[in-house]
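Listing S7. Sequence submitted for prediction.
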Amino acid sequence: MAKKENHMGFMSKLLSFGSDKDLKRYYKIVDQINGLEPQFEKMTEEELRAQTDKFRERYANGESLDDMLPEAFATVREASKRTMGMRHFDVQLIGAMALHEGHIAEMKTGEGKTLVSTLAGYLNAIAGKGVHVVTVNDYLAKRDSEWMGRIYKYLGMTVGLLQNNMPLELKRPAYQADVTYGTNSEFGFDYLRDNMVTRPEQRVQRGHNYAIVDEVDSILIDEARTPLIISGAGTKSASTYKDFARAVRGLERGEDVSHDMLTATEDVEPTGDYVMDEAKHTIAATERGLKKIERRLGIEDIYADLSGQLVNHLQQALKAQYMFHRDKQYVVTNGEVKIVDEFTGRIMEGRRYSEGLHQAIEAKEGVTVARESRTLATITFQNYFRLYDKLSGMTGTAMTESEEFGTIYNLDIVEIPTNRPNQRVDHHDVVYKTEAGKFRAVIRQVKECHEKGQPVLVGTVSIEKNELLSHLLQREGIQHNLLNAKNHEKEAEIVAQAGKLGAVTVATNMAGRGTDIMLGGNAEFLAKADLRKAGMTDELIAEATGFAETDNEDILNARKMFTEAEAKYKDEIRAEADKVRTVGGLFILGTERHESRRIDNQLRGRAGRQGDPGETRFFLSLEDDIMRLFGSERVMGMMEKLGVDEDTPIDAKMLSNAIENAQKQVESRNFQTRKNVLQYDDVMNTQREVIYKQRRQVLDGEDLQQSIQSMLRSTIENAIRGHMGEQKHMTAEEFREATALFHTMFLLPDELRLTDEELQGYTADGLVDLVMEKAQAVYQRKEQEFTPPLMRELERVIMLRVVDEYWMDQIDAMNDLKQGIGLRAYAQTDPVVAYKKEGYEMFEQMIAAIQEETLRRLFLVRLRKNEEVKRERVAKVTSESGGGEDVIRKEPVHMEALGQSLGFILYRTKVNGPVKGELKMNNMQDRAIVYVDGKRQGAADRRYKQDSCDIVIPSGLHTVDIFVENMGRINFGGQIQGERKGIRGPITLDGKKLENFLIYNFPCKGVELIPFSGKKPAGDQPVFHRGYFNVSNPKDTYLDMRDGWKKGVVWVNGRNLGRFWFIGSQQALYCPGEYLKPGKNEIVVLDVDGGSGTVKGVKEAIYEVNRDPAMADVFRVGKPVAPAAGQLVHKGSFAKGADQQEIKFRAPVQARYIAIVSKNAHDNGPHAAIAELNFLDASGNLLPREQWSVVYADSHETTGEAAQAGLVMDNQPTTYWHTKWQGDNPRHPHMIVLDLGKVQKLSGFRYLPRQDRENGRIKDYEVYASPKPFKPAK
């Protein structure tokens, strides 16, 4: 038996979270569990596994989970020892007790939160209602389900895993498992999707029993207000955002003049064009600024727009311009605005600001403004997690948010002591007068640590400060690693090695969570790097470091190699780690206080892991944001009087208290904001529950016949009594108005046209019964016509559809109401009360409208004979956005919708095999290569009319990647802006539509800049640039041409890569690896519009792109070729007009080279033009154009328009070869020569004239052919 742990001292530590009574209770239970350990150690595997069935039987017989806790925990501890070689510490048992009781367990970094969750997870899974373990990303969900799943499976429990894009058929069994792992986003989206289904069997969740939330402060505090949104297409125009972005530029900030309304004698207008309160995050235009903006927009009065949309546009444009700053709240990468998490410093992939703010920032930055979408379903994390019967969580930093956890979620926080004593030394803050003085002190401290070999992690609150500090360190010659959202893909690599001897790491607060910083270095990361060097894919490395059961030889070999490498590095690191401990461990150096104490505590918590030594210190200045916003002026004035210089730190208790009070103010304000939002959200939540409950009743087969009859009577009563009021009898006019609605449903035009005298004989009840009888008679006839079973299905389908349609409108209406409700405060009305009242009235109106519309459709519905009643969603889902780190999920769209793509795009989904068949990519442009689990299976090229290929998917869940390359640059066409790239239609496999595609817009990673020298010409004159770059291992790559270039062509080592253009998706060029050579390579850029910049070359391609042998030759227009005799095989005249014409040769000819000679044109002009040329084989079929190239053209236009000879074979009828018409304007005859790639038998050709106008359409022509190159004389 393992030695019993010493409890001495830890009781005093536990005093932080409860009374002596609580402590004694936890202590007694720990003793019970330890006392059971010898008994459980003696059990056989079968006896230990049998405990699960015994616990379930006891629970079924009425015994509580609390009563079974000691034995259940002892069972899990023993199973962990046998399967994982890990024994739960006593403090981990206490953490699990806190989780089971529905508390938050606050545990320091490295204390084993993942293992703690197995105890509470197992105990609560005994009830058979499901346990949800919630992680912040898919990687952790997969890792923990496999790793900790070994304990559950050993004890006979099932484990489920939710992953992004997982098919429906795999999600349901995952939710049926005893314990289910997944991200907060995946659980939330599944809840929304379940309430959008049209059949009950499409639902996947089975309720919300118990959840254990990892990093609970991140999910329930930082992301509390994050709405999970399932969207459809919206209608707002992008141009409006651009107009407002231009209109608010260059405004002057004024000072907000506050005054006492009761004592002020006159209103004092604020100065400037706008006023802004950074502390409260508010901004508003002044009267002067508003007039200036309206004048720029050409709008008389923005506030005259009763819809409020213009006011919202104005507000978001002001926020975007003056409150949200690039490289602070967001970054711009690959033409996309990406949010930077203020708490972690990481890029929040797939997240977008709401209420039009994201579009306003896109307009400000000049990138593509994404189309706004319509909300189909939404819920915040705050409200989703309040659905659970019991909620618990784990984190290292929660105590500072205890008020919020208690008030909103009814969660108490239990501070769990560390297993080993904490040796970290937290030094007092030092405060400097100016930021410059502070940074000089930071550099001195870094140098001091670096000289003795102590690793330093420097934390900054923004990318801007992060890069400034890096520059200062470079100036001092201190080697360091830089980490921020711009290079977040290197986060694991940088953070993993931040504990090495002498390491200096400068990071934003994204370093506060994530990969463990281990003294001496991280052996796991180094071992992974060895696997990567050995040529293993990321997928295989993930499997090698995972815990899933497998018999795959590749994975088993990779695991063996990883285990050996990790053991080797652990031995090497051990000595270095001891040296680091000797010099004091990791030094955490904070350069600014975050507005949340919790974020500061996270940064501190990176040092002193598992009893290691460490130090922390914050360096502050009176110019820091949090000091400036919360009253540093008084302290600054005092320092000025005392003559304190910039390099003298202040160490005053008063100042420390002021900082903490400032942080508490911000935390309190943020809490009040979230609490206030919750009050609004509760109104929507109540409505959501009513609607979703009604949907479930309809789906679960409840007989709606009685409900429909009740709705019918209720609608008739409301109409009759609403018009009758307090009268005893109705007039004929009133009755006509009351029944007008029913004449559109079930009453004939002349039916029930009662006179005043006839109505004297009817009371209100009598009239209701009279109309009801008519309605029931019509309804019964319709039911007999359709048959009762079909009528019941119709009732179900129509009600579902109407509920969904009106609920969608209600979401929008409630959101619009919330936008302007704050203004009610000016009328001395509580906005929350007004929102609840008006929201309730709107909901009542919606319910009445749902009933009325359902009845109307039921009475008017018509069915053709044998027509099937289909259940369909009311709107097509286009995206899901909200929580998590994953890319926004979308239906396939063309590249322009993704924002000025570089021209490369990847569609990825999961497919459950086995399946074999045709993968069809409808409306694909231009070339697609298909991979299954990273291995190439086929390709399709739009230029050759291919849009499908055959693939084979083996049994199980597999990743299907479709890599699409935009080849539009080859045609040099003038219509690029209208081209549609990517896959715009559905993607089907063996006739079945594939869903849930993730779309990746390829970034250029691992780039090196290729510098260019030379003087830029004046104006937009053509200019050549030459540069050189080094390559160590030539591989397929891309060249990124966005930095300063306009339009032109690129050659690498004399090989033509094609055309770039800043318009559209022509901003990157594919360069095959064989074009490159080890060592020095030459690049030549011709920019025809005088552009000049830098080229970014990717060192290693993500996917190997299909070779195109014709690609290098397409632009060899005008190249002289060897003269040879050419055979005249045909001559004639083309018909006038734009129709395609097919010409047959008198006899088949053997040829590789074909020349078309234009003798004259129909318009009698000097030019020739051809849109498309195709040649026919001996059987009259079109020849494939894979190997074709243009080898000669006597003339082509490049200045007036892009009309190169290569366009005759680009499969684009709107582009064409056109002879030169600027300058010398050569006359007929004209000639173009094509190389068909090999000698073959030809029977004729097809000619397509230019389509847009008559100029250059050929009249008389000649055709020459030869097996060898030739240049026939004119």
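Caption to Listing S7: primary sequence and predicted structure tokens for the chain studied. The chain has a mean pLDDT of 77. The chain is about 35% helix and 20% strand.
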